[in-house]
Amino acid sequence: MKGRIVDLGRMAYEPAWAEQLKIHAEVLDGAPDTLIFVEHDPVLTLGANSHEENLLLSREGYQEHGIDVIRTDRGGDVTYHGPGQLVIYPIFDISRHGKDLHKWMRDLEETMILTCAEFGIEAGRLSDVNTGAWVGNKKIAAIGVKVKKWTNLHGIAINCDNDLSVFNLIVPCGVVGHGVTSLSSESDRMVDNDMAKPAVIRAFGKVFDLQF
User: Fold this and answer.
1) What's the predicted TM-score (pTM) here?
2) What's the half-sphere exposure (Cβ side, CA atoms, 13 Å) at 174?
3) How many CB atoms lie within 10 A of CB 16?
4) All domains of the chain, ordered by start, with CATH?
5) Which of 173, 175, 191, 201 is catalytic?
6) 173 is catalytic
7) pLDDT tens track of the chain, all 212 residues?
């Protein structure tokens, strides 16, 4: 099957959300599965299952750090997006890929495991409860989605060369006792978003049998 890539560059969260909704409507209308790439301005997004206690500062405190706080309708808790992190929104018709939500989540994790492997990093799963891709007990890629009419919204954030200290301002994804890491930290060299994108495209092509 054919897929397409939409690269939004760097964009604030809300305009990118509008682009997601536009492309979601296109895919519902028969357009190819679409992989959106974007790098967000600093923002905390609160998922449908988020808990206020996982925000370690007040809203004003985050504003002082230049970080917006936005509630979303994806699954999961609180996470951070910002420069140096690659955000991937796969707006896919899941009925083309098994129509199985559990498989969908595991397949998304597999794309990140394969991406990490291209940089010599052995990533894996921690559990079905703690989704994402992990290197040991450190999360390298977070996943939070919402499926509407069997077509996906939201997606994945993989840490490439971002400032990981920002995650100290939250309880990432509501998971206590686990850390975060990045492609750069684990490979001992700089891996930026543009370097990661081709690996992500190859991984999605392999897992979902797509040609972009």
Assistant:
1) 0.95
2) 18
3) 20
4) 3-208 (3.30.930.10)
5) 173
6) yes
7) 999 999 999 999 999 999 999 999 999 999 999 999 999 999 999 988 888 888 999 999 999 999 999 999 998 888 999 999 999 999 999 999 999 999 999 999 999 999 999 999 999 998 766 899 999 999 999 999 999 999 999 999 999 999 999 999 988 777 777 899 999 999 999 999 999 999 999 999 999 999 99
